[in-house]
């Protein structure tokens, strides 16, 4: 379990009045096997939160725990970083080595594993993300979506328990984005996923949605619960997913049309067909 | 518009005996070869070394024109060296063309130097054509790591080279993109005098540097997230290992080098 307990963080000097508060009392938990989407507009503190997950930043107040280990404890920092894999926004800036397989090997190499074990993990991880046939390719010859999948493989090769993606889909074309989301759906069985995005459509797949604004978690719940706020979502700088917007419009005029908010076109059609 | 191959080296990915050698053996071979080439003084030695290199090119399955291509940037230098020696050696003149004397001794000396340079390039090319940049980096790290004991940053150097190799194509693509964007805004990179062109590069270099620093920062964060903490306790996917073929190759090279050196001393 990864937990944030009343985490406060601001950039700059300690009691600097000009310092911007980037996180103000964030608390939540991410369990293994859970798929959580964190929504928030630009500058709301998403990346700051992501960097707290593996101790790249440590809270000024409150604490972050990964399986009971405090990120402020230097002696367990590397174990925390192994357990919590981070994938970042820019696919070009997180691949380190000159070939795909060398890059995936980078994490296990840092863990000091024997070469045969590294080999095994690299092959496994590349197969997992469907990039095995690209293993000898140079990163700059891959598409954005493929680069992100390699980045995920690089993290998976460290056998993490949690995967945190900081706007990993933001710079991808629709196709690359769809591939990546499909991959996340496959991975959710084995690792806890915290997928950070400002694309509300991606939140429809989540077990749980959190909304962050101005450094605070302002809404949390299943996608159905969160999107019930309707147009009010705009006060956090977000929009409603298209399907929810349509459904809510219909609901206003036909209050007994749905028993629950539909989250996919199929659910909407079903509800419409069974309406009498 | 930018020649990628110039920067990346001209590695030819084949599967040959030369390709399979440990990069450290090949680096060793080149280092010893260079020293030998500078010490030998006789044609017989050159012939022996040349024959050996040809054999290695054949072993590497490399087409000869690849090797010749690497000599191309040197033509001018070679021709100039030869001319200088032929015309300006104060020696018994063979023929006189007005004020130009053609010296036989100079001709020999010039050809000597040309042969030396050509063989030097061929030896180095044997390394760069058969060794991928990653292997080369690993090899250099392997050879330098004994110096770590005295504080030499062997691992850091190798990591820098790896990152440079990884990002050169990315930065070239970016330079290309920025250049096109600036040209679309009416900036002229291609005309004007030397100073004007240099100044014209500013709209290219400034955005390129800004983005390179941004990338460096992102990369550092990504590396730290993947448990990177320098060379300590780090293992490799492919550990370098000297095989029997490496010992064979090195012994053979050593034999040829020593033989050509002794030939040179004997006949001199
Ligand atoms: N390195 C930094 N130094 C100072 N302020 C920063 C830094 N990084 C982010 N901030 C500020 O912290 C706030 C949250 O930023 P960030 O976590 O990057 O948001 P998001 O990822 O949601 O766009 C913003 O107001 C931003 O300006
Ligand atoms: Mg961000």
TrEMBL record, chain A:
It is found in: Cell membrane. It comes from Candidatus Caldatribacterium californiense. The keyword Cytoplasm does not apply. CDD domains: ABC_cobalt_CbiO_domain1. InterPro entries: AAA+_ATPase, ABC_transporter-like_ATP-bd, ABC_transporter-like_CS, ABC_transpr_CbiO/EcfA_su, Co_trans_ATP-bd, ECF_ABC_transporter_ATP-bd, EcfA_1, P-loop_NTPase. Residues 2-239 form the ABC transporter domain. GO terms for biological process: cobalt ion transport. GO terms for cellular component: ATP-binding cassette (ABC) transporter complex. This is ABC transporter ATP-binding protein. Part of an ABC transporter complex. Responsible for energy coupling to the transport system. PANTHER family: ENERGY-COUPLING FACTOR TRANSPORTER ATP-BINDING PROTEIN ECFA1, HEAVY METAL TRANSPORTER. Belongs to the ABC transporter superfamily. It holds the Pfam family ABC_tran. Keywords: ATP-binding, Cell membrane, Membrane, Nucleotide-binding, Translocase, Transport. It is a peripheral membrane protein.
